[in-house]
Amino acid sequence: MLLSFRVANHRSIRDEQELSLVATEFNDGSGRDAHVRVAGKAVSVLPAIGIFGANASGKSNALAALRFMRNAVLESFADWGKHPETVPREPFTLDPAAREETSFFEVDLLLGRPGQKTRYTYGFELSDERVEAEWLHAYPNGSHRQVWFDREADRPEDEGGEFRFPGSGLGGRKDEIKALTRPNALFLTVGATLNHTKLAAVHRWFLNNLWLVTSQHDVRNRTEWTRERLTVENAGAEFRERLIQLLAGADLGITGLTTDPDTGEVQLLHRTPESEDRPLDFWREESLGTQAWFAFLGPLLHALDRGGILLADELDSSLHPRLAAEVIRLFQDPDANPRTAQLIFTTHDATLLGPSIAERPLDRDQVWITAKQSTGQSTLYPLVAAKVRKDDNLERRYLHGHYGGVPRVGAGELARKLAPPEGEERATA
After folding, report:
1. Which of 39, 85, 299, 344 has a 20 to 30 Å separation from 23 between CA atoms?
2. Residue 319, CB half-sphere, CA atoms under 13 Å: how many?
3. Contact 153, 132 (CB under 8 A)
4. 191-240 confidence digits (pLDDT tens)
5. Cα separation of 349 and 319, whole Å?
């Protein structure tokens, strides 16, 4: 499970921002007991959080930063090696000084079986040329921090950086991994490639998590991926049944699905007035909303099955607010989500803050807001920083700008921008 994520100097995020999935005192019961203690306190972890904000405020960049960290962990050894003196990072572009500063990424994780979970802190800093710092700390059995490794590129002549391995926490072939770690490769990636057991466990979390779903841009790819899951040996039948249940439950008139024997394309079955099931051509006859829901269900079920983290950018783009709310509730239901999968989504849909939707699906500490400063920097902060009360109408107060994160545009302001100067008439063709 993900406890928190911190990032600085990536895209529109300049100063360090933190996204936390640890439940607070404002939580009314959605948090899941993590069976660990942090700083002496028992921790509950949120199964879902939503990031709200105006257009271009940085919502998508928060998810992009998580994906960048994942890609760095998975690709730095092999792919970055094709250009051994560069790092493909994306620092804040509106201030030239940011190019000279490092980009920072760090996660707090809980790994292991229920009752035997260990907290880890893993992170790194990057410049344009190399990994400037990297670290992995562990807290086994809720104990004090163990530094498994710390890396710093203090001197230009250091080949892979200066490493510290205090204590015996990490173990394994540390010197061999260090020797193979290029200046622009992550030690964690190299260690996992060499099958170091403890490093591979953390690396595996990145491999199996942070699945990104975007609005309409990747519907065809996700549709194909979902279709392929239907044919997986031993798992295809169960997956098909669950997929049909979620399709039918969305009130789209769908009763089942079939696969065209000639083309292999999926066809969804619809009710007819004659009480017969009729297949529709998926791409020519189905609505965009139906296509988006089908494409979304593959990654959704994959995350629930594996206990992974699903990143949904613009969850509301093709889903009715009630359907989006039900997606959130799937992650919050222990029976539907026994493996403690997590959902991190961005949205413009203020109805998810209630009371337009019966039983608001988000507790107060599950709501985060992005705002864009006048300098172009994005800030990310929790709704609870505004000291919201339990009985506040969050939807109305958010739309009225009490919490920030909404466009500063007055009623009729855009029309006035296009109006001709006073005393003049707009030319017509």
Report:
1. 299
2. 31
3. yes
4. 999 999 999 999 999 999 998 888 656 888 889 988 888 877 556 788 88
5. 10
For residue 326, what pLDDT is reported?
Answer: 93
pLDDT for residue 68: 97
pLDDT at 177: 95
Q: How far apart are CA 357 and CA 328, in angstroms?
A: 13
Please name the helix (run of DSSP H) or strand (run of DSSP E) that holds residue 413, with its range, or none: helix 413-418
- Read off the pLDDT of each residue in 291-310 and give the average, rounded to a whole number: 93
As a dihedral over the C-alpha atoms of residue 218, residue 311, residue 29, residue 360, rounded to 10 degrees, the angle is: -40
CB-CB contact of 48 with 328 (8 Å): yes
DSSP SS3 for 244: helix
Query: Distance between CA 287 and CA 399 in Å, rounded?
Result: 30
- Most distant CA pair in the chain, distance: 81
pLDDT at 414 over 70: no
Euclidean distance between CA atoms 134 and 72, whole angstroms:
12
Tell me the pLDDT band of 61, cut-offs 50, 70 and 90. Answer: very high
pLDDT band at 391 (very low <50, low <70, confident <90, very high): confident
The answer for residues whose C-beta is within 8 angstroms of residue 331's C-beta and 6 or more apart is 47, 48, 304, 337, 341, 342, 343
Torsion angle (degrees, nearest 10) of CA 75, 78, 80, 83: -160
Tokens 């990994």: give the residue. 131
* HSE (side-chain half, CA atoms, 13 Å) at 185: 25
Q: How far apart are CA 68 and CA 90, in angstroms?
A: 9
